[in-house]
Automatic annotation (TrEMBL):
It comes from Mediterraneibacter butyricigenes. This is Transposase. Pfam families: DUF6262. InterPro entries: TnpC-like.
Length: 135
């Protein structure tokens, strides 16, 4: 009997530790404005998905904080990583672009472009005036 009581006590102690770990992780995600999800919690804690659904204390805390998150702007770790990758890609492309066209050539092309825009608008106005006169 004594062995059985010891095993039960150890199981309860381990369960209490796992519950504390889960609740701490949920509260941390809430404080950091990260979306609370069971998938993310399993990654953070190493606990099973079922633990978050089957443990009534953990489930209650999780549901309460998820409810509080409704309408909040949350950080999504995946979107943060995507944004960083996009920024790096943009910088890389900007560097390639600046390396491909010398600065003085770029400036001269920019001037030609502006001149052509002015000529185009003048031609367009002239064409519109001629069309208006024909009416």
């Amino acid at each position: 009997m004594q062995k059985h009581d010891k095993m039960v006590a150890l199981a309860k102690e381990k369960s209490a530790e796992m519950t504390e770990t889960a609740i701490t992780a949920i509260e941390t995600m809430y404080r950091k404005n990260k979306k609370i999800s069971v998938a993310e919690l399993t990654k953070l804690t190493g606990l099973s998905r079922g633990f978050f659904y089957n443990n009534p204390n953990v489930k209650q805390v999780m549901m309460e904080l998820k409810e509080k998150q409704q309408g909040m702007i949350l950080r999504n770790p995946k979107s943060d990583a995507i944004a960083k990758a996009q920024e790096a890609r943009i910088k890389s492309l900007e560097q390639k672009l600046s390396d491909s066209v010398p600065k003085n050539e770029y400036e001269s092309l920019q001037k030609k472009y502006e001149e052509l825009q002015v000529k185009y608008s003048q031609i367009k106005k002239g064409t519109l005036l001629k069309m208006y006169d024909q009416l």
